[in-house]
Fold this sequence. Notes:
Helix 3 runs antiparallel to helix 10 (245-260) and helix 4 (114-128) packs across helix 5 (145-156). Strands 1, 2, 3, 4, 5, 6, 7, 8, 9, 10, 11, 12 and 13 form a 13-stranded mixed sheet that branches. The chain has 2 domains: 6-167 and 345-382, Aminopeptidase; 174-215 and 262-322, no CATH class. Helix content is 39%, strand content 26%. Residues 374-384 have low confidence and may be disordered. The radius of gyration is 23 Å and the shape is globular. The chain is an alpha+beta fold. It has helices at residues 14-18, 21-29, 40-48, 114-128, 145-156, 178-183, 188-202, 218-230, 233-236, 245-260, 304-317, 336-339, 356-382, and strands at 6-11, 57-63, 73-83, 93-96, 108-109, 134-141, 160-172, 207-211, 264-271, 274-284, 287-295, 324-326, 342-352. Strand 11 (287-295), helix 11 (304-317) and strand 12 form a beta-alpha-beta unit.
Amino acid sequence: MAPAGYTVRVCDDWQELEVLKPEWEALAANALDPTPSSECWALIPALRHRLPGAGARVALVYACATPDGQPPRLCGVFPIEVDGRFRGLPGKIVRLWSHFHTLSSEPLLQRDCADACVRAFLRWITATRPKSTLVHFPEVRVESKFFRVLSDALSDYHLQHHTVAVWARAVFRPRRDAERYLQSIGTSHHRHEWRRQERRLGEKGALVYEVLDDAERVQDWVDEFLALEMRGWKGREKSALGMSDSHRAWLSDVAHEAFARGRLMMLALRLDGRPVAMRVGFIAPPGAYAFKIAYDEGLVKFSPGVLLELENIRRLHARPEIEWMDSLATPNHSLMDRVWIDRTTIVSLLVAPGPWAGRLLLSTNRLLESAKSLARSHLRAEKP
């Protein structure tokens, strides 16, 4: 199925992966798509701090050595986990790893051989796993280059696949200028109210928007963000990053690594020096990812989170190298859907790289989905 000259090896030891950093960085510099969660600076800390996952490991695709003496070249990084079942189906599932703090579950692929990498990966699944194995791509942006490469591979080799889910989420794309963008969101009443809230909040003390621009302050900002998030609803529901030592350590490591690469974007709204809203984002040229936002719920009547997001829109317009920012938000998100006017389509795909057993499983999955849809229709019809 894949062109000759590519091999795959699997590694589940983050210390072994550390050795690969130079060639991994070279791969990232020539990647098909920006995929921070598959880059070494984010993936190695995730493995080192054991973020949730069912035995996560990394499949590394290499272009073999050439007759003219060129050494093997790392050209694909696929973080994966192996699950026993998928929605009650028998067989194994190899899933692109998507942990709780994943920015993108797409693999990191060399631009000039991305199609060969994808095909080598699928061929490796077929050769090394049981015939009933399926591959789950849990969250793929339809507008990404990877989606086109994967779609071509599925079409060219007539691989059975099933779209498990499709949804849309908010994405930022700049307009001609920030003011034009801001005038296009909400109603005139909303925009008047946001200006009023900013004025009223400013009456309580010195109100300042600030961007992190000093390497010596990275840890201070991370600690402030974690503390602010812990004081809010995520802290009460025990879903805040600060609830877990490993998650705190992961964010600290990733923030330092990203800042050193010019990839961290942290903003804060401060009142008399203390943060009342903070957001964390990661830059992945030509795009970016909005990771987390936290705000002081004691000041909710002033909408500090909205005010900071409006400032973020202004700052994004001042950075022409950022063509989009993915919100990573759930559909119908109360904040992001209100202030970001564009949407991006996300799909979850199930692929059968192997022969009859995989195809049978996909057919069974379609039957299960049809049965669930039929059952929902009957329930709706029976309601008075």
